[in-house]
Automatic annotation (TrEMBL):
This is phosphopyruvate hydratase. SUPFAM superfamilies: Enolase C-terminal domain-like (SSF51604), Enolase N-terminal domain-like (SSF54826). Residues 113-332 form the Enolase C-terminal TIM barrel domain. It catalyses: (2R)-2-phosphoglycerate = phosphoenolpyruvate + H2O. GO terms for cellular component: phosphopyruvate hydratase complex. Its EC number is 4.2.1.11. Its main location: cytoplasm. Residues 6-105 form the Enolase N-terminal domain. Belongs to the enolase family. InterPro entries: Enolase, Enolase-like_C_sf, Enolase-like_N, Enolase_C, Enolase_N. GO terms for molecular function: magnesium ion binding; phosphopyruvate hydratase activity. Its cofactor is Mg(2+). The keyword Transport does not apply.
Amino acid sequence: MPERPHSVEADPTVEVDLCTSNVLFRAAVSSGTSTGVCEALEFGDNDKTCYMGKGVSRAVEHINKTIAPALISKKLSVANAILGVTLAVCKAAAVEKGVPLYLHIADLADNSEVILPVAAFNVINSNSHAGNTLAMQKFMILPVHGKNFREALSIGVELYHNLKNVIKKKYGKDATNVGDEGGVDVAASEFSGQGNMTWTSSCLMTPAARQRFTASAGIQVVGNDLIVTNLKLMSKVMGEKSCNCVLLKVNQISSVTKSLQVCKLAQWGVMVSHCSGETEDTFIAELLGGFALGKTRLVSLADLSASYNQLLRIEEELGSKAKFAGRNFRHSVAN
C-alpha cells in the first residue's frame, strides 16, 4: 500500500509497503531536481493545484491497481517494474535469507567482501542547486586519507564546518547560505576581486549532455548527464572514451537489478549518487556496501545523516572484516 512521504525538499514522493506472510517491508523513492531526457521518467500528477504539480497520486494508483496485483499473481518481473517495489522486494529477500541487506546485495553482485565508500561531501553549491552563478555546480571533497569510514566522515564534517567559518569570516554571513543539497550557497560576486580559492581536482563531473571530454586525463571524469544511468548510453560513451567513471542513480534506472548491470558493464569506476529529493530510507547505504563501490556522492550533514549513520553501523557490525576504499576510490569491486 503506497503512501506519500515527503523528501528533504518537502515534495511528495512514493513509499511502498510490501507485506509478506508475517513481515512488513517499507521503501521510499527519492526524486532528483535536475533530470536528463534519457533517464527513467517520474510518474507525476502535473496538477498545479496540488503541490505545484509535483503530486504522486497517479504513481500510487499505478502501484495499487497494476503492479500489486501482478506481483501477487507472479505475472510481473518486479525487479524492472518500479523502484519502490524493487527496493521493498530486495529488503524482503534479505530477511528471508536471514542476512543483513548489504550482504544480500553483495551476494547479488557476487562480491565476497564489503567495502565502505569514500563519501564525496558537497561543500559548495551553485546554479540549479543554489542562488549563485559559479562556474561549477558543485564543489565536493573526498577525505581519502582516513583509515576507515568513521575517521573519513569526521574529516569531511570538520572540513565542511571550518570551510563555512572561513567563508563567513572573509565574506560575511550572507555568503554562507545553504543550497538545496547541503553545500554552502556562496554568491559568485563574493569571490570576484577578492582573491581566489584554490582547489586540487581529482574528479570532474561532466556538466552537460553531448559535451565530450577526454577520459585519458589524469583525473576521473564522471559521466552524469552524458549517461543518466542508461545502459545504451553507457555503451556509446565507453566507445567514445568520453569519461572514465559512471554516476549511478538508482532512481534514474528504477531497478536494483539494472543498477547492478550498470556496475558490471562499467569498465571503469562507479560513483553512486543520492538525489536532491532524498528520503529517510537508507537503502543507498546498503547498496554501497554490497556493491563494494569506491565512492558515493552524498549531500552534507542533516539531509542524509540516516545514510551516514547506517554506513557507520555496517562498519561497526563488520568489525575487523570492514574495509575502506580510501585512496583506491577510483576502482570498484563490482566490475
